[in-house]
Predict the structure.
Amino acid sequence: MKENDIVGLSIAVVDGQKTVWADGFGWADRKNKIRAAPETVYRVGSITKLFTATAAMQLAEQGKLDIDQPLKKVLPQFSMKSRFKKAGNITPRNIMTHHSGLPTDYNRGMWAKEPEDFTRLVDLLRDEYTAYPPDTIFCYSNIGMTLLGHSIQKVSGQPYSEFIDRKLLTPLKMYNSYIFKTLPDTPQSSKGYSHDEESTIIPLRDLPAGGLNSTVLDLANFTKMVFAGGRFGRQQIIRKETLDKMLHFQDGNAPFDLGRQMGLGWFLEQQSNEKPNLKAMHGGDTFLFHSMLITLPRYELAVIVLANSESSANSVHDIAEDALEMALETKTGIKRKAAVKLSDTELPTRPEDLISFPGYYSTGDTIVQITRDDDQLKLISDDDTLNLVLREDGRYHLQYKLLGLFSIDVDGLDELAITHTRIKDREVLLARFHGQNMFFGEKIVPGPIPASWKSRTGVYKMVHPTSGLMFNDLQLKLEHGFLVLQYTIKLPYREEAEESGQITLETAGDQLAVIHGLGPGTGDVVRAVYRNGEELLSWSGFLFHRVQ
């Protein structure tokens, strides 16, 4: 916690129907000297999606929601534009597996001092475009889960938060848990911290995607229900056969999935200890809070970790993984997997890689370049240059050369294992991180840019600034033969907090441009629109007018 500037953290370990250990570390409220405890309430972010998916499957059991029917059957007002001919249907099933093709977020109004009701999202999306055809790629979507929550509200005839409380939280005796747009200021509620300072907790519009407040003890009850085949105490919360479906691989045939496995709402991973061992999990990230819930249903073991600091994202994952492996060894004698360490032996760069790797790559939120320097590959990002070093497993890792003389592994970067491959007609860099394959970047080559888009280059400002997440600056420019959108985002939880990035755009006619890359945030559309005779740019609900 000290190494990662984590102010407060709580953890619980579950074995079968018992919480065998729960504790808190650091501060829930440092100013008022309130310690973090198992009873401390945190924002748990996207762990909420497990409850949304479970509620949807409860309705499916009752015959009220067909998860394979088009979403429009439940939400007739749902409509989005598409760039894809003969695209399949968006359904509750592919929403729960994040294969719906919906964009990751609709950012305008998602975080705000006074957010609109999440049911407004269905109307806000009418002029927006889907990012991918359904069932082609894993693309994490908060939009999708929010629409599923709207469907739950529509089908059940009850407000979403009330339905979750009545059908899940209360029966599971999660008495300190509730769905709400923010974390109220109570003695049990944790504060949120950024750069070791208490910061403002910004309310969230998209409650079904991330609006749950909870404790490690309450979430432990949720895992006990999973281990009991959907039963908690004397109540059958969900049928065992339904729960089994949720924990069963739902996909794997999508061409760009990279072996990622999804259940219904659950991230799944097949472990390779002494016996087949399925891991089911979900994490959560908001600006200031990070969480991780990991289960081994076969062994009825679970770990929940909640933290209250912006810098804790990787730590909650690592702590949960380590604690779960120790619990498994304690209970069964199955030894923890030895950490895979990079060999100290640096191998010569393969000749074929010196040819295939070099070029520009779009990562979705920045552009990197790989160049060849004699027999060495280098990765250039902004003003940083890193060496790509080949190791014995055939993958490359990133290494920084201090003062151009001393090679050092940059903290965190040495965990990335990078390879180059081709999937269908796209060249990509893949990164292996925390045992999962993910897209690091897609190779991009300059192409013709229509005169209409060239004429739009310049500096833009937001037309209607908001109280939450907003763009300070936007610049559309030509760089290295690409159409590039450079941006600065003002983060609402801390004064002077900003994040910058740049994305490449592939034009799709005179009015549309698409964000290059594969995965979350990519495939989104930037549009040229007209309002009151003025041409504007539209992106994720925000409007921008050119100022120079």
Remarks:
- The chain has a mean pLDDT of 91.
- DSSP finds eleven helices and 32 strands in the chain.
- The radius of gyration is 24 Å.
